Amino acid sequence: MTHELIIMSETTTSNKVTNFIKNLDVSSADFQQRAAERLGELDFPTTRDEYWKYTRLGKLTKLELSKFADPDKLNLTKHIISNDYIVVVNGFVREDLSQFSKLDFEIDFLGSDRMAKEHYFDKNLNKKDVFSSINSAFFEKVISIKVGANKINKGPLQIIYVSKGDQIISNTRLYIEAGKSSQSEIIQTFISKESTDSFTNHVTEAYVSENSHLKINKAQLEEGSNSIISTEQVHQERNSVFKINTITLSGALVRNNINISVTGENCETFMNGAVITKDNEVVDNHTFVDHQVPNCMSDENYKYVLGGKSTGVFNGRVVVQKDAQVINAYQNNGNILLSDYAKINSKPELEIYADDVKCSHGSTTGQLDDEAIFYLQARGISKENAKKLLVRAFIGEVIESFENEHFENYINEQLAEIHDWRN
Amino acid sequence: MSKTLLDIKNLHAEIEEEGKAILKGLSLTVKAGEVHAIMGPNGAGKSTLASVVSGKDGYEITEGSIEMDGADILELDPDERAKEGLFLAFQYPVEIPGVSNINFLRTALNEIKEYRGEEQISAKDFMAMVREKSSIVELDPKLASRSVNEGFSGGEKKRNEIFQMAMLEPKVAILDETDSGLDIDALRIVAAGVNKLKNENNAVILITHYQRLLDYIVPDFVHVLADGKIVKTGDKTLALELEEKGYDWLNAEA
Ligand SMILES: Nc1ncnc2c1ncn2[C@@H]1O[C@H](COP(=O)(O)OP(=O)(O)O)[C@@H](O)[C@H]1O
Ligand SMILES: [Mg+2]
């Protein structure tokens, strides 16, 4: 009896994922076939799962999603902020809309057969994670970026991910190898054009070699009913510096899973995030730094400004392994609730198994300072603009960490557009 | 005859939360070109008057009226009052980390100009104006570009208030204890700044504890505010008298 029951429940659970992907064809490639097989054994997480406690997937997983290779020309002028850019529409690389010189990077768009031969490809992804597994089963081409040893890249490479149409799934995949002693920056902008109820399921794998510097500036700006789940799997080797800045200004459900393994000594790791919401958004940042070796530092700062009935989730996990001595790990999460209905769930998760370690974390949640609002108003600034000035000041540290004027200006423009801000 | 810029009649105000009455029938008429001093013991309601006139939340006006330039302002938001030409130099200027003094002033100035249907100020003209106006109160231009009042000394905060007044060129300026905490040199600088800014088209209301300030900014009228009302009005000699005798004799008189 019991046996039968278990089988029944397994069938129901895997049905959910099967149903979710029912409109998607799997390529004949081995790698993707195997990933698709795995999906039969996986289920979507529920709020009973520790890492999905505050984020319900029900609405997303009920969507009838399909793939769509949109052939239209798109005017993306206002989103282009670099000389080198790649446009991806609904998960399909659009070389006709892209422009990049291969001077600093080796850029390729490769299928899974070819990618499977890469030593690092897919190596560190959690095979039990349903979303990255869906990505593995259904991505079109991987954008593979290799930065040669000692290459110092001028002008970042921008990747513009566009969702277009209704109930579209985009499985976008990015693979980065930052060569020894190289320095590079990648901008990712996630936007949508005439799109509703669509889902971008993104995976980035980054290998940050010895002595290299890699920075990712990531803007999530999809329209109101669109969702994004983004998984970043990062591997750092010794003396390397990795920075990732994530700014989220819209989207129905946005979840970022940033997992960083620090495997070499003298590494530095920076994660910054800013979230600004106004309606019913759910924005969930889960970060994980695994300090496996001594003499490293990580520094994390996430700021949320939540309006309307939106929900923010921050979970910052830091593990310092047993012999990883002399680690400095800083974590800060500051939140401002602009409305009585907005919610934040913030949780630091520090697991320290070494003894010579400096870890600090702080989490604050509050409202905007009424005295400051009145002061600004008394100078002739409307209440709404006064609030915006204070919010802008609150996320100022995160904006500064972009260290890229074009990206900063772009974010200011998007704040004006999406949140009706003046500059 | 010069025109009335601020007309407060029989003003009654209480603190909303507690229903505690603070202003109890206060009347004050201020005309263009005038300097008024309001003196009075601690807790008399001087800062409450300044807050109520500038439209701060948390007070209920139960009776009376406030008009600026002939128009009722009680229904206006604080920023609209500022746009109509009111300025308040705060007794305790607020520190606002991350908001640059210059940027917020430019935002303010442009909002005011927009309200009045005037052209926006160019970055170049604005910077020239900052240089000119900061020199009036000898405010280090470096301070002008830092975060609003953050890490400023007490004296710098007060000078920054007058600098902002100079930038915004209000019709009616209420200076709430701008002199308190200033040493004699700073007091002279601030007073000279205010003197430079006042003219026949604007008016200044000085709220102060001490007669000292009035040696430098000579008032046309001195009012004593006690227990929520103006209990006595005189010329500048009244300030000297108050300095000598304190406030108690007024109670006896009343
Ligand atoms: N926000 C407030 N909440 C409670 N009491 C207040 C508040 N503001 C002022 N008061 C009270 O109102 C009275 C007048 O205060 P205030 O206007 O600051 O006096 P002054 O500026 O003349 O020293 C005092 O009794 C003070 O305690
Ligand atoms: Mg006071």
Shape of chain A: globular
Q: Termini distance of chain A?
A: 66 Å
Q: Strand order of the main beta sheet of chain B, please?
A: 6-9-10-3-11-12
Biggest β-sheet: strands ordered side by side in the sheet of chain A: 2-1-5-7-9-11-13-15-17-19
Q: List the ions, cofactors and other small molecules found in this model.
A: adenosine-5'-diphosphate, magnesium ion
Query: Which stretches of chain B are low in confidence, meaning pLDDT under 50 for 5 or more residues running?
Result: none
Question: Ends of chain B: how far apart?
Answer: 32 Å
| Largest interface, C-beta closer than 8 angstroms, per-chain residues | A-B, 23 and 31 residues
Provide the CATH topology of chain B: Rossmann fold
The total strand number of chain B stands at 12
Question: How many beta strands in the DSSP annotation of chain A?
Answer: 19
The domain count of chain A comes to 2
Fraction of residues in H or I helices of chain B: 25-40%
